[in-house]
């Protein structure tokens, strides 16, 4: 392993920002999924190892003091590795311990892996190449190329299409237009995943997905409340006072609704199972709120009756308000 400063091409007095910038530049140049450089995989592994040393404040200080080598392994006092002389393994520094010096307290690491918990280059890989590269880290070209990023979009559908299903056109952030199938019974705000319709992979992997959020358009008289529907239903004064059977609209056509005698304006009646269907279970309900409506033109008989009530049968409907 070469000197990490040499590998990253920075001076020993470089600050953290300079080191990170140098690593970003080299990682982008030699990433195995994209680089056409000779021995890109080996160079990429080398710069990743160098950044693990210099990108970590404690490791960098230990390296500068000579306490660890370029691979992050400790240099023990009086012994710097096996020499290339007789009995040595080659490739290291000659032992300085004299004859009879023991190995007690020495720790040898012949295995691979990272020494300590230095900076994770995958944080920068994510910035450079997307989440796929971040998951792979600096493992090189052995893993599959990263997939593209997911994209999001919105589509508006009518209440009828939300209930019964249908199709809608959606425009993706790239400007591409697709037709998306709307499943029957979908709720407002739910997402539909379109496989492989997202951003392309920079490294030649599969594209990401498109996540389409469904928005149910405003209906002329129904309001969506989860899987329930709400409806304001006008009733005549005499229907509210005397009670009546009247037609009320639903998603499946009009049904007969019984208005109890003496119904106040604002009273809510429930029609079970007349809301939005649920593919996994029972449908929601239709909640009908009565709105008492007076005649458009002033009725003299009604006005006379109300004056009689005012004088002979007064009552205060706001007594509960104090």
UniProtKB/TrEMBL annotation:
Keywords for this protein: Chaperone
CDD domains: DnaJ, DnaJ_C
SUPFAM superfamilies attached to this UniProt entry: Chaperone J-domain (SSF46565), HSP40/DnaJ peptide-binding domain (SSF49493)
Gene Ontology terms: biological process: protein refolding
Family annotation (InterPro entries): DnaJ_C (IPR002939), DnaJ_domain (IPR001623), DnaJ_domain_CS (IPR018253), HSP40/DnaJ_pept-bd (IPR008971), J_dom_sf (IPR036869)
TM regions (residue ranges): none
Protein name listed in UniProt: Molecular chaperone DnaJ
PROSITE patterns: DNAJ_1, DNAJ_2
Every J domain range: 3-67
Gene Ontology molecular function, alphabetical: unfolded protein binding
Native species: Methylocella silvestris
Record-level GO cellular component terms: cytoplasm
């Amino acid at each position: 392993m070469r000197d990490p400063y040499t590998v990253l091409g920075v001076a020993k007095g470089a600050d953290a920002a300079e080191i990170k910038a140098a690593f970003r530049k080299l990682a982008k140049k030699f990433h195995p999924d994209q680089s056409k450089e000779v021995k890109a995989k080996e160079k990429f592994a080398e710069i990743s190892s160098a950044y693990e040393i210099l990108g970590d404040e404690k490791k960098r200080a230990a390296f500068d003091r000579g306490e660890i080598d370029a691979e992050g392994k400790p240099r023990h006092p009086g012994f710097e590795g096996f020499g290339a002389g007789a009995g040595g393994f080659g490739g290291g520094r000659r032992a300085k311990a004299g004859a009879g010096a023991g190995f007690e307290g020495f720790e040898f690491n012949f295995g691979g892996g990272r020494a300590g918990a230095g900076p994770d280059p995958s944080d920068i890989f994510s910035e450079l190449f997307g989440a796929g590269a971040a998951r792979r880290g600096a493992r090189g070209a052995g893993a599959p190329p990263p997939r593209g990023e997911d994209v999001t979009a919105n589509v508006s559908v009518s209440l009828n299409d939300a209930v019964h299903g249908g199709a809608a056109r959606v425009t993706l952030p790239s400007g591409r237009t697709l037709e998306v199938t709307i499943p029957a019974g979908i709720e407002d705000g739910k997402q539909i995943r379109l496989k492989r319709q997202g951003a392309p992979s920079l490294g030649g992997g599969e594209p990401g997905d498109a996540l389409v959020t469904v928005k149910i358009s405003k209906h002329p008289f129904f309001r969506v409340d989860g899987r329930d529907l709400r409806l304001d239903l006008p009733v005549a004064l005499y229907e509210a006072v005397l009670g009546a059977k009247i037609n009320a609209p639903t998603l499946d056509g009009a049904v007969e609704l019984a208005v109890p005698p003496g119904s106040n304006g604002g009273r809510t009646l429930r029609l079970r199972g007349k809301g939005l269907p649920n593919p996994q279970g029972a449908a929601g309900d239709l909640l009908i709120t009565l709105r008492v409506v007076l005649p458009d033109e002033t009725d003299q008989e009604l006005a006379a009756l109300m004056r009689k009530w005012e004088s002979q049968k007064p009552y205060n409907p706001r007594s509960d308000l104090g």
